[in-house]
Design a protein that fits this description.
The chain has 187 residues and is mainly alpha-helical. The chain has a single domain, classed as Tetracycline Repressor, domain 2. The protein contains 10 helices and no strands. The chain is elongated and about 60 Å long. The termini are far apart.
């Protein structure tokens, strides 16, 4: 029962975030926006930072599910990559993505509340992305390399987009990257 209440509360917090972001808001302001009390947020998430990390975890899980879904809808890996980039580059996701990079930066300083984030920020994505490259015919070693390159490049392009807003150039760069990363390995 408590898990259901926690998940429902997390749903409301994620919904509030998607409306306009909340990384700069206090725990009380977040609670108000999500229709709850700050005490309930502390009870379920331990702290403001714990809540932010859980929100990012949830949104990351939604993005991974979207990638898997896109991969089953289209046979062309370049088209899958284009569709996924369009999803990531959607301005409606910008508040969640800013929060992701904020948590990422805190993880660089080894903040204790980012422990689960650090443990999953690469590994949760690596498996599914490696599997997609495996389906393209790459051996396990090459699939692993391309998956890590794909994660790093996509995050870099997204960070650039959030900072500069230079959509045309970055859309073209993402398209070029999609074509390059899916090309067969050179002997």
């Amino acid at each position: 029962m408590a898990g259901d209440a926690r998940e429902a509360l997390l749903d409301r917090c994620v919904g509030f975030l998607k409306e306009g972001g909340f990384s700069q808001l206090s725990l009380r302001e977040i609670a108000s926006g999500a229709g709850t009390s700050h005490r309930m947020l502390i009870y379920h998430f331990g702290s403001r930072e714990g809540l932010l990390a859980e929100v990012v975890r949830r949104i990351e899980a939604e993005q991974r599910a979207a990638l898997v879904s896109l991969a089953t809808e289209a046979d062309d890996p370049v088209e899958v990559s284009r569709r996924f980039w369009r999803r990531l580059a959607d301005p409606a996701l910008a508040p969640a993505e800013r929060l992701f990079f904020e948590i990422y930066a805190q993880a660089l300083f080894d903040r204790s509340w980012t422990e689960s984030f650090r443990a999953s920020v690469i590994t949760a994505w690596a498996g599914p992305v490696e599997e997609l490259f495996g389906q393209l015919g790459f051996d396990a070693t090459e699939a692993r390399r391309r998956a890590r390159l794909g994660l790093a490049a996509t995050r870099g392009l997204l960070l650039d987009l959030l900072i500069t807003g230079d959509r045309d150039v970055l859309d073209a760069a993402a398209d070029l990257f999609a074509r390059l990363i899916t090309e067969p390995a050179q002997p």
